[in-house]
């Protein structure tokens, strides 16, 4: 990947994640989750975390993702997942389209993609396999293009 493409990726990813709210009709539509499928060339830590997460057999949860970067501040994205489907996504009081939310599978996929494209990716996982912090540095020599995600998870009853 060229330096220009990496720089564009570093700027556009946080901006698209923080883009505006969806119309009420789009926000109400459930969004099916594309399952993460481990590959033989995945980072062993990613594969182990996914296995730990899968072993818990959790289909109903709330995941909150806070993005930090050298970009305009954005609020945390709170995603409600029921039966492996994204049901509700909010940022503060604003309702977003379900496709703007995060599921555990989508976080694992994001980590895999970033690992393939960025110069440096660091992830800290909980013992349950939840990626509690993700650092993505697309261009190691560049300054101020890193993105940081902090993730918290709670179970729904």
How is the secondary structure organized here?
Elements: H1 3-17, H2 24-28, E1 31-32, H3 44-55, E2 61-69, E3 77-82, E4 85-91, E5 94-96, H4 104-117, E6 120-125, E7 131-137, E8 147-155
Keywords: Signal
Pfam families: DUF6174
Protein name: DUF6174 domain-containing protein
Fold and architecture overview:
This protein has 157 residues and is an alpha+beta fold. It has one domain. Helices cover 29% and strands 31% of the residues. A hairpin with a 2-residue loop joins strand 3 and strand 4 (85-91). It is globular. The protein starts with a helix and ends with a strand. 30% of the residues are buried.
In short:
The chain has 157 residues and is an alpha+beta fold.
User: What would the average pLDDT be, to the nearest integer?
Assistant: 85
N-to-C order of helices and strands: HHEHEEEEHEEE
Number of DSSP strands? 8
Structural class: alpha+beta
Question: Beta-strand level of the residues, as a percent range?
Answer: 25-35%
* Broad shape: globular
How many discrete domains?
1
Radius of gyration: 15 Å
The stretches of 5 or more residues where confidence is low (pLDDT under 50) are 3-27
Oligomeric state as shown: single chain
Please give the largest β-sheet: 8 strands, antiparallel
- Gap from first CA to last CA: 44 Å
Compute the number of helices: 4
Helical fraction equals: 25-40%
């Amino acid at each position: 990947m060229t330096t220009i493409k990496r720089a564009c990726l570093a700027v556009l990813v946080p901006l698209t994640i923080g883009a505006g709210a969806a119309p009420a009709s789009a926000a109400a539509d459930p969004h099916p989750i594309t399952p993460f499928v481990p590959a033989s060339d995945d980072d062993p830590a990613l594969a182990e975390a996914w296995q730990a997460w899968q072993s818990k057999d959790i289909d109903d949860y709330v995941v909150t993702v806070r993005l930090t970067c050298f970009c305009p501040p954005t609020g945390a994205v709170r995603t409600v997942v029921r039966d492996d489907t994204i049901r509700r996504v909010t940022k503060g009081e604003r309702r977003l389209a379900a496709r703007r939310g995060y599921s555990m599978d989508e976080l694992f996929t994001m980590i895999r993609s970033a690992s393939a494209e960025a110069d440096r990716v660091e992830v800290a996982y909980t013992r349950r396999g939840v990626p509690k912090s993700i650092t993505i540095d697309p261009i190691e020599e560049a300054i101020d293009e890193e993105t940081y995600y902090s993730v918290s998870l709670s179970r729904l009853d």
